[in-house]
Amino acid sequence: MVIDLGEVREAPVGDDRPPPWTPRQRRAVRVVAALVVALLAAGAAPVRPALVMLDIPAAIGDRFVVSDSTDSVYLLSPSLDALGQGEREIVKYRLPAGQEAWRTRVATAGPLRTAVSEGGILYALAEAYAPETIAFDADTGKVLWRRAGWLGDTSAEQVFLSHDPRDDGTSLFMALDPRTGVERWSLEVPREEMVLYNRDRIVRWRGDGAVEVRDRRTGGLVIRGQVPPPVINPLADSNPGVQLVGGLLLVAGPPERVVTTAYDLDRLQPVWQAEIDLMNEYVTDECASGTLCVGGDGPGMRVIARATGRTRWVSDRWSWMWRVGSALLAFGTESEPMRVAVIDPADGHEIADLGRWSTRPAAINPAGRMYAARTDPGTGRSWIAELDPVARSIHVLGAVPDSFACEAGQLVVTCTRTGGAVAVWYPRRKLDE
């Protein structure tokens, strides 16, 4: 039997004293208590907690990585605080019991700043003067390959690396085979040129407006052309005034006029112009289908049509938006934890308030749900919940003590504990699947 005590609107933070109950609430509690007593008397099974905790010893500065698709986590040690050459250790733990699957040590020129687990491979980035990407077999911990370069996007088809700058004054961009590290194609450009890429296209941009578009999968040339470049002061402007988003190349207009021109990538023909300050604003295609989101350093965002550049609606309440299935999530302008809401992509109208949580797009699982956390600095407790944007619901899994700096992944939530240990909070229902 499931006893529904009502929808959880928001987990308490700070003051844990319950509000005064009304007579109606007191009567409801007495009824629920009577039901619980009856169940216990009938020999009902005890209620198990919604979360299982796994405590992993770690030191302050160690890096913790949650796997993408398998029930496992990785600990990189020593990591952030260990500069210079030395040996780094990576340990894989299986969930939910926390058995050590493998432990491997690797010598690097710098600390392991980050790592990504995808498609049965763990990619780690060792940051130094010459950055290096190292690929490990996720099942055994064996080093598959190591190449100079910054780790970029990873996929089942290829891994994207960049090496900039190099001693000869050039930048190198490479697509590698994920399992062998064999180079599939590479692009070498002068250091003053810029390379942008998205899902399936790479753009080589020169300051005078010369453009070269290539297929990201093969590296093959799609088109070359010339577009009017933005007028910038290289000594004052670090922003080049060019962005690649949603299959469009966006180029800032003259400094005396706030305007951006969008070019079709495969034809390099202008599609539309809009009042976008590309020197101070960013554009993403992560909001509703057929639209682009425009934001800046200050609060507020606006949604424009991807096909025409026309503004559909504007709101000063959100700092970021993200599409989750058929729902559009909006994140507030406050500092962490931000308010999370489901909004109508057509007009920005708020549909459901999911409360204040720390979460991120990487926490969205294939089912469209996402884990979230929020720490109460006054008590050292962290609330952990599962958000369902499509169903517009919140399921608070519980509160865990002595924790902070929680990070939500697709499978688990990790929190740092006093002394640097890492706690992994695993939803109980995963054990029953």
From TrEMBL:
<keyword id="KW-0812">Transmembrane</keyword>
<dbReference type="Pfam" id="PF13360">
    <property type="entry name" value="PQQ_2"/>
</dbReference>
<feature type="compositionally biased region" description="Basic and acidic residues">
    <location>
        <begin position="1"/>
        <end position="18"/>
    </location>
</feature>
<keyword id="KW-1133">Transmembrane helix</keyword>
<protein>
    <recommendedName>
        <fullName>Pyrrolo-quinoline quinone repeat domain-containing protein</fullName>
    </recommendedName>
</protein>
<feature type="transmembrane region" description="Helical">
    <location>
        <begin position="28"/>
        <end position="47"/>
    </location>
</feature>
<dbReference type="InterPro" id="IPR002372">
    <property type="entry name" value="PQQ_rpt_dom"/>
</dbReference>
<dbReference type="InterPro" id="IPR015943">
    <property type="entry name" value="WD40/YVTN_repeat-like_dom_sf"/>
</dbReference>
<dbReference type="InterPro" id="IPR011047">
    <property type="entry name" value="Quinoprotein_ADH-like_sf"/>
</dbReference>
<feature type="domain" description="Pyrrolo-quinoline quinone repeat">
    <location>
        <begin position="89"/>
        <end position="313"/>
    </location>
</feature>
<keyword id="KW-0472">Membrane</keyword>
<feature type="region of interest" description="Disordered">
    <location>
        <begin position="1"/>
        <end position="22"/>
    </location>
</feature>
